[in-house]
Design brief:
The structure is a single chain. By secondary structure, this protein is an alpha+beta fold. The chain folds into 2 domains: 6-205 and 317-433, no CATH class; 216-313, no CATH class. Helices cover 21% and strands 32% of the residues. It has 9 helices and 26 strands. It has a 6-stranded mixed sheet. A hairpin with a 4-residue loop joins strand 19 and strand 20 (296-299). Helix 1 runs parallel beside helix 2 (53-63). The longest helix has 19 residues, at 316-334.
């Protein structure tokens, strides 16, 4: 087993950041425990570099000619092992050592085929998407149907400028796209993986219920009209213990801080009744308005009778606990009673990690334990999470690092997170390759 090389850097000039990341990648590829000839690259950039996305991709491709395939996108932040870069020019790269017959890069102009092509059968897929794409939920469901497991993981591009995506295969072009450059906007792109690419993926929720789970008994489009037969607006106000009578401003402030967790009709709600936390079947949506005439609550998603709904709020302690829970689940599934958590590293004045002191090296999957070990990880987190929400710079990734050990990691902070065939909000999607 070899680890996936990874590199990350921040610099006002993208060429300098690329040079720093390339130096890390080359140094790792020269070590015996890392892959020496990976062919698939994942590239995530902050929106500061979005205008130079084509030049950046071309530069990396020319400097790493053995990497024939690229995928990635832009976020308001990017993630690396124990480090987050928010609101600053930065990039994060990881090179996956996966057999070429076990993955396919796809995009809107060269979609993943419905029927297996050239002997390749999609098992799972990493998906990057533009949140402004029409009927995105339907497209994700259709993409999931093109894989054997129906499992997708990834997220929506997040940018204050261009929402670019990267998709390059083979000789620099995807078959069927002619001379396209490999930098796209809009639609879906990503990498489909075959059954031999073993991965474990978990979703962590960032919100906690503030009321019981109720049944939607009446709804119209995106407006919830009744919950358990009672007017939805009255249920919301009772849950928050507020009133719109007199001065409504205090009540409206509490409403603005509240969201709604939805569970599709026919799905058995999991998690809340047992732990007081949402399960992966719950999708958190914004409350976008109140309908006083119909005593309804308008959400940022279509609602149908038969769904379940629980009002919720963002909760730092719950988010930390749930992130630690999914990391523990992954560790237990890979190496029961084998792994020990890695020590938290010291930090420099910027809050970024420094090398551990001698004798304090990470006790993670890279440290020689038996069993299924992690080769690399991808973490896609909500742009509303990150270190500041967890209490300090890079705090979210430090939790992941402490739980999983010193493993290669890349990822980005997204405008929405993709897992299974659903689009989530305020969540993190952690996927590890073994």
């Amino acid at each position: 087993m070899t680890l996936f090389p990874s590199g990350h850097a921040t610099h006002p000039q993208w060429r300098m950041a690329a040079a720093l990341a390339l130096a890390q990648l080359r140094a790792q590829m020269a070590l015996p425990q890392y892959a020496s000839a990976p062919t698939l690259g994942l590239l995530y950039i902050t929106d500061h570099y979005a205008g130079d996305a084509q030049a950046l991709l071309d530069h990396l491709a020319s400097e790493l000619p053995g990497v024939t395939d690229w995928s990635g996108t832009v976020g308001v932040g990017v993630a690396a092992n124990n480090a987050e870069y928010f609101d600053e020019p930065a990039l994060s790269v990881m090179l996956l050592d996966v057999s070429p017959d076990q993955y396919r890069v796809f995009s809107g102009v060269a979609p993943l085929p419905r029927q297996p092509a050239s002997g390749f059968v999609a098992h799972t897929a990493l998906v990057h998407a533009d949140g402004h794409t029409p009927e995105l939920a339907e497209l994700l469901a259709e993409m999931a149907a093109r894989t054997e497991t129906g499992y997708l993981f990834g997220g929506l591009s997040a940018s204050r400028g261009a929402g670019v995506q990267f998709a390059v295969a083979g000789d620099g072009n995807i078959a069927g796209q002619g001379g396209a450059s490999g930098v796209f906007d809009g639609g879906l792109s990503g990498v489909a993986f075959g059954a031999e690419v073993v991965l474990v993926s978990r979703v962590t929720q960032g919100c906690q219920p503030v009321g019981p789970l109720r049944s939607v008994t009446a709804a119209h489009e995106n407006v919830v009209l009744q919950l358990d037969g009672e007017p939805a607006l009255d249920v919301l106000l009772d849950t928050l213990e507020v009133s719109l009578d007199g001065d409504p401003q205090p009540a409206l402030r509490k409403v603005r801080a509240t969201l709604a967790g939805l569970v599709d009709a026919g799905e058995q709600p999991r998690g809340q009744q047992r732990t007081g936390h949402f399960g992966t079947d719950t999708r958190v949506r914004h409350i976008v308005g109140l309908d006083g005439a119909r005593r309804g609550v308008a959400l940022g998603d279509r609602v149908e009778p038969g769904m379940h709904l629980a009002f919720c709020q963002r909760n730092v302690a719950a988010a930390r606990a749930d992130l630690m829970r999914i990391c523990a689940e992954i560790r237990e599934e890979l190496e029961p009673e084998e792994l020990e958590p890695a020590p938290l590293e010291s930090q420099d004045h910027t809050g970024r990690a420094m090398a551990p002191a001698p004798g304090m090296e990470a006790q993670g999957p890279a440290a020689g334990h038996h069993g299924r070990r992690i080769r690399g990880a991808i973490y896609v987190s909500c742009s509303g999470r990150g270190g500041p929400h967890f209490g300090g710079p890079s705090a979210e990734l430090q939790i992941v690092r402490h739980a999983l050990g010193d493993v290669p990691l890349t990822g980005f902070f997204a405008g929405g997170e993709i897992a299974h065939h659903h689009l989530y909000g305020y969540t993190g999607v952690l996927t590890v390759f073994t």
